[in-house]
UniProtKB/TrEMBL annotation:
This is Small CPxCG-related zinc finger protein. The lineage of its organism: Archaea, Methanobacteriati, Methanobacteriota, Stenosarchaea group, Halobacteria. Residues 1-29 are annotated as: Disordered. Residues 1-17 have a biased composition (Polar residues).
Amino acid sequence: MSLSTLLSDLFSGSDTGTELPDANADSGEGISSVTVVRECRHCGTNVSAGTAQCPTCDSDEIVTYSIE
């Protein structure tokens, strides 16, 4: 799945394998939101936490991005 598809799905409210962790209450900077995206570096497919190999292309290059 491409980043543009992910962002479209994110804003439309559908589930694409992204996570929204709880805001850090100790930060003292108010409420912040972080989206965690895990995807295959080879083909861009979104995967869930703990996935070691892409189900689409069998690559083991899984990366994690935190978007604030």
